[in-house]
Amino acid sequence: MWDQLKQWDRQLFIYLNSxxxxxxxxxxxxxxxxxxWIPLHILFFALFFIxxxxxxxxxxxxxxxxxxxxxxxxxxxxxxLVLRLRPNNNPNLIEIIRILQEPTNYSFFSxxxxxxxxAVTFIVLALKEKSNWIFLAYxxxxxxxxxxxxxxxxxxxxIMVGALVGIIMAYIFFWLYIKSGKRFYV
Length: 186
Known about the structure:
The protein has 186 residues and is mainly alpha-helical. It has helices at 2-18, 25-31, 38-51, 54-82, 111-127, 139-150, 156-180. The chain is built from seven helices and no strands.
C-alpha cells in the first residue's frame, strides 16, 4: 500500500512537473523564493493593526509568528526523521523532470506548504469576522506550493501533507490564542 502511494505520488509529480513551460520558469523561480513575499507578509500584519486595537493586534501577531515558527521547526524535525530524497536529488528522475532549483535537504514534507498554510489559515481565522475577502489570502500558499512542483523539488504528497500540517497547527495556535487573549479583546 505504502509503495503504491509513493508510486502514484511520483507519477503525479512527473506529470505536473512536465506541464511547466520554459517561458514561465522565471515566474516560478521568483514565486518560490520566500523573500519575494515579504510585502505580502507586511500587509498581513498591517491588517491586524487596522482591524484590531493595538494590544490585540500585537497578541495576534505574536501567536501568528509562534504558529509559523513552531510549524517550521516541526517540519524540519520530520524531514530529519523521514529522510525522503527530493525529486531533484533522485537519480531515477533527474533525466525525466525539469529542475529549476537544487536544494540538497530532504523533501517530506514541504516547509513551504506547512508554513504558508499555517500562516494563512491563522490569518483567515483571526480576520474572517472583519472581512469576507480574507479568504482570498489562500491564493498565496496555493501559488507558493505549486511553484515547488514546477521547480522540481517537491512531490505532490509532500505538499498535501505539508498543507494539512500547517492547517492543523494554525487551528491549534488559534485555539491557544483565543484561550489566552480574551482580556485583550476590544
